[in-house]
Specification:
The complex is a heterodimer of chains A (113) and B (115).
Chain A lengths: L3 E3 L3 E4 L5 E3 L1 E3 L5 E8 L3 E10 L2 E4 L6 E7 L2 E6 L8 E8 L8 E2 L3 E5 L1
Chain B lengths: L2 E3 L4 E5 L4 E3 L2 E3 L5 E8 L6 E7 L6 E3 L2 E6 L4 E6 L8 E9 L6 E3 L3 E6 L1
Parallel strand pairs in B: 2-12
Antiparallel strand pairs in B: 1-4, 3-9, 5-6, 5-10, 7-8, 8-9, 10-11, 10-12
The chains are: A mainly beta (113), B mainly beta (115).
């Protein structure tokens, strides 16, 4: 069964901490994405990557960075967590060749206190 | 810029009723793709359907059906004879034909099916 795996389901961090959210896919997909989901706002794209070491800003990149050192892994980094980054974070991947929709991970609910 | 509007924030229906979830989109592209995803309480988004902009045929899959109308830029989703297991948040989404496959999501419609 193909999967996108996010390392943590729930995470609680303190303001100012550096936070790493990890995402791994086993489908050899080229594209990977990080979204955050907030009530009433839907899913908003933070960053995406179309290849190893390549990254592009999405709609709300401020306060975040990403890393893609290997094709299967895409990390989201909160350099200095703030309370307004409390949210559900969703990772997704897609294949150029298959041209289907995204495959999503189960999400990480991050609370910054 | 692309935009997806789901005007219905929450809908409640009684089990076995039919329900339609509305989706209106905006794009300047002539080639694009439309999607519906389901997010059950467990949190993981599940892909339901993809539609190409050049294929306006309606589709039916069991109790689910989709009505794509380019003239009104709408891609509505109907659940027939709703069941409690249909309770979820449903997202409509739009993707352009670009190589990055970026997707713009609507704000979602929360459907509650009451037994």
């Amino acid at each position: 069964d193909v999967k996108v795996t996010q390392s943590s389901r729930y995470l609680v961090k303190r303001t100012g901490e550096k936070v790493f959210l990890e995402c791994v896919q086993d489908m050899d997909h080229e594209n990977m994405f990080w979204y955050r989901q907030d009530p009433g706002l839907g899913l908003r794209l933070i960053y995406f990557s179309y290849d190893v070491k390549m990254k592009e800003k999405g709609d709300i990149p401020e306060g975040y960075s990403v890393s893609r050192e290997k094709k299967e892994r895409f990390s989201l980094i909160l350099e200095s967590a703030s309370t307004n980054q409390t949210s559900m974070y969703l990772c997704a991947s897609s294949s150029l060749a298959l041209n289907y929709g995204y495959t999503f991970g189960s999400g990480t609910r991050l609370t910054v206190v | 810029a692309q935009k997806v509007t789901q005007a219905q924030t929450e809908i409640s229906v009684v089990e076995k009723e039919d329900v339609t979830l509305d989706c209106v989109y905006e794009t300047r592209d002539t080639t694009y793709y439309l999607f519906w995803y389901k997010q059950p309480p467990s949190g993981e988004l599940v892909f339901l359907i993809r539609r190409n902009s050049f294929d306006e045929q309606n589709e039916i899959s069991g109790r689910y059906s989709w009505n794509f109308q380019k003239s009104t830029s709408s891609f509505n989703f109907t659940i027939t004879a709703s069941q409690v297991v249909d309770s979820a948040v449903y997202f409509c989404a739009l993707r352009d034909s670009g190589g990055y496959q970026k997707v713009t999501f609507g704000t979602g419609t929360k459907l509650q099916v009451i037994p």
